[in-house]
Amino acid sequence: MELIEAITGRKSIRAFKPDPVPKEKVEEILKVAINAPSAINLQPWDIYVVMGEERQRLSRRLIKSYREKKISCSPGNVKPLDEKLSARGAQSFRLMNPYLEEMNEEFNRFINEGSCNFYGAPVAIILCLDKAFSKARYVDIGILLGFIVLTAYGLGLGSCPIGLISAYEEDIKDVLDIPENKEVVIGIAMGYPDEKSPVNRFKSPREGIEAFVRWID
Ligand SMILES: Cc1cc2nc3c(=O)[nH]c(=O)nc-3n(C[C@H](O)[C@H](O)[C@H](O)COP(=O)(O)O)c2cc1C
């Protein structure tokens, strides 16, 4: 697949076929994706790939914890968002909701419990960073995330980044036996897209670059 086509064609997938993904396929994706750049080539990531019964066990724990603590998907801002950003958040809800209504799904439940369940994907990937690193190294994890979702798409798999799960870090570390000195940064749901699910018809729009770019020349 051509690179530009991959970048513009990828989108988050939120319904998956139950079909298992061969371990070799995930391995192939990760072997490509770890070509991502990182500062001083430190490759500071730890990558946990969770499949099969362990994947189900992880979701059961996350959903239970979500129902107890009710920490939801949110922008995670520490100061109020300006009008433009708030409007984008509202737009995300407005544009996706009709697809969920078609599925008789309530938005918050679908997104929050769905995220905890990796949207039923057979593969969950958890990206961790050693706590010895500074916050600047989150950038490296972010780039790896980008490379993983693009590579997965290029090789015929769908994916969705799952940031919500970092709110349930202690549960994840407990279930997966992740050492205390590692921080859970982000998860990824991965599998074969369920083409029949209405939510997978949704493609989020982007602003024109004039909304972000200031030319200084
Ligand atoms: C860091 C990060 C965290 C995200 N966390 C979640 C999440 O917890 N649940 C979810 O459904 N989508 C999550 N997403 C997916 C975004 O909602 C999605 O990327 C965005 O709406 C743009 O849509 P697209 O990926 O289809 O282009 C996350 C994306 C990123 C980059």
Within CATH, the superfamily carries the name NADH Oxidase
Strand order of the largest sheet: 1-2-4-3
| Overall average pLDDT | 96
Q: By helix and strand content, what is the structural category?
A: alpha+beta
In which range does the helix fraction lie? 40-55%
Which CATH class? Alpha Beta
Count of alpha/pi helices: 7
Percent in strands: 5-15%
**Rg over CA atoms:** 17 Å
Count of the separate structural domains:
1
Assign an overall shape.
globular
The CATH architecture designation is 3-Layer(aba) Sandwich
List ligands, each type once: flavin mononucleotide
How many individual β-strands?
4
Strand count, sense and barrel status of the largest sheet are:
4 strands, antiparallel
Note the gap between the termini. Answer: 35 Å
| Sequence stretches where pLDDT stays below 50 over 5 or more residues | none
CATH topology, by name, is NADH Oxidase
**Helix and strand pattern:** HHEHHHEHEHE
